[in-house]
Amino acid sequence: MKEKHFTEEMVDLINNDSSISDEDKTQVLRNLAKIKDTKVNILITGATGCGKSSTINALFQSDKAKVGQGVNPETMSISKYELNNIILYDSAGLGDGKEADRVHSKNIIDKLYEKDSNGDVLIDLVLVILDGSTRDLGTSFELINSVIIPNLGEDKSRLLVAINRSDVAMSGRGWNHEENTPSDKLVNFLNDKLRSTKERIKEATGVDTDPVYYVAGYKDEDEEQKPYNLSKLMAFILRHTKPEKRAVFIQDINNDQSMWEADDQLEDYKEEIRGSMFESIVASAAAGADIGGKIGSMIGMGGAGRVIGGAVGGAWGAITSFF
Ligand SMILES: Nc1nc2c(ncn2[C@@H]2O[C@H](COP(=O)(O)OP(=O)(O)OP(=O)(O)O)[C@@H](O)[C@H]2O)c(=O)[nH]1
Ligand SMILES: [Mg+2]
User: How far is the CA of 52 from the centre of ligand 2 (A)?
Assistant: First the structure.
């Protein structure tokens, strides 16, 4: 976990590069310090048992979020997990009774209005997780349509809706465990769920969303379900994150390659992830200094996002080896 921050490796390389002017060095070092301090704040919410903790543990290098805890009426506050650059807030959704719902709604709304030290909205992204194995998603739509959307402000792109536990949708029929893929019938079922989710939000609020389905997976003594579409979810998370903040995901993303393997292959999500992180780091690190190309090759990006194997190892190296 405490591996060297990728910006520190870049600091060393920049300092040792005699072809960069002192002026550009100063500028880039300042940029790198800023990147190192960049925080992405993500609020994750959804009904009890939808897989919030499992999703956090699948996406990021942490086993902080306890899985399968059940409801504890004593803990009505939002849990906070602080990684290197990513800060996660895990809040219960609705459906735990009137008093609990009131408290959770208030906590979520307060978080949505919270400002960071620069006076900007703190929460960069709200990820609402729906349980794909549940027929009745009424309380989840209540959460999205009546609690979250009305309190998002102008910019609705902070909202991302995702349907988890797709492997156990349709009563668990339709998952090919050998290949870790859904059957055609299940794909149709899940696409219908995506469509109706989109419609129910659009009808109630007028807001367009772009939901995805995925599997966060689990592991216990005798069984393991690997994730599915986790790279798609990550690509969507990056799309919903400000371009200049995308780079820092690299420090905290789960570097267990097997988590990112299976997806619907409708697009090359891994390439998108790699590309958007690379573009983000080059743009942020080279801002105000005309050495974007140099930085690109330092972190291993040739033209058009092509990986050419750069000098920066550590977090970058791990990511470029499988994304
Ligand atoms: N089959 C399957 N099970 C999952 C998946 N994701 C999570 N689970 C299981 O669903 C249960 C609940 O998952 P959690 O991650 O604890 O859900 P949560 O939303 O954090 O729950 P609370 O914190 O209690 O609100 C656990 O038994 C997980 O192992 C998935 O994609 N597929
Ligand atoms: Mg949890």
Answer: 5
